[in-house]
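Why does residue order matter? Because the sequence determines the fold. Keep that principle in mind as you read this record.
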Amino acid sequence: MNSFCGKVLLFGEYSVVKGGNGLALPFFDYSGRLVKNCEGVDTGLKNFAEFLNNSSILNSTLNVEAFMEDVQSGLRFKSDIPQGSGVGSSGALCAAIYSNYHREKGLESIQNSSNMAEIKDHMSLMESFYHGSSSGLDPLISLAQKAALVKNRNNIEFVDFKNDPKLNLYLYNTGVSRHTSPLVHEFLKKCEEPEYEQKIQEFIQISNDLILSCMMSDYAQFDDLFYRLSKWQYLNFRPMICSSVDSLWLEGLESKDFYLKLCGAGGGGHYIVYERNPGNEKFSNARKISF
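Structure:
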């Protein structure tokens, strides 16, 4: 069966929730695929199959009967995508199931479909099993294996970076597990405060401009905006910065050799590093982000 990659939300964490833009990339260093006829029954997939079976929308879209039979026969999702780390483990699983058990379409026609909104909505409903709610963006990126510009939560278009931006961007894994929902809940609660909401509008503008500079390969502008974003997050997103990267984050801002930012919700898992002066041994094991 086909492999399905992880994803990186390069820019747009939290700002997308408030109407800002986002830029998501497929991340091919991590992937997963369905494997049949393994020994035993995967309880997690069995529970997921029951969830799909209870949804009239998903039941009419997917061949849930075939999926349930394969689960009973030892279906597994073999994956090296870290769970709870912000790189799309559940999204890849949903994409794999959607692709392999869709009633009408093969993977190729799905990737080229003009009705991506419907596909995203279906996979959003699927991924809600794991997160309680989902935008559907993670499985969409994994399914199509293309970069996507998120103009808002309901307006997503694929983009083609014909000229790979020459940027030293990396995924830095803290190895610290995190839970997304409490962080998002706390963020939304803080946004009820007028002063904080005003700060968020500043954050959204920086993030939107950063996406534009990245897509236009405006490196000077990108450099300045990444610093501003990193500094803004360090001052205003303290609960999202785990203790193991706090001093490293501040070191980067002070030295200006590198900058850190959140990757998704933060709180642990992965963070994104932009190296202005490549070769820092602190990031020797970090994974390069490509466009």
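The CA atoms of residues 58 and 135 lie 16 Å apart.
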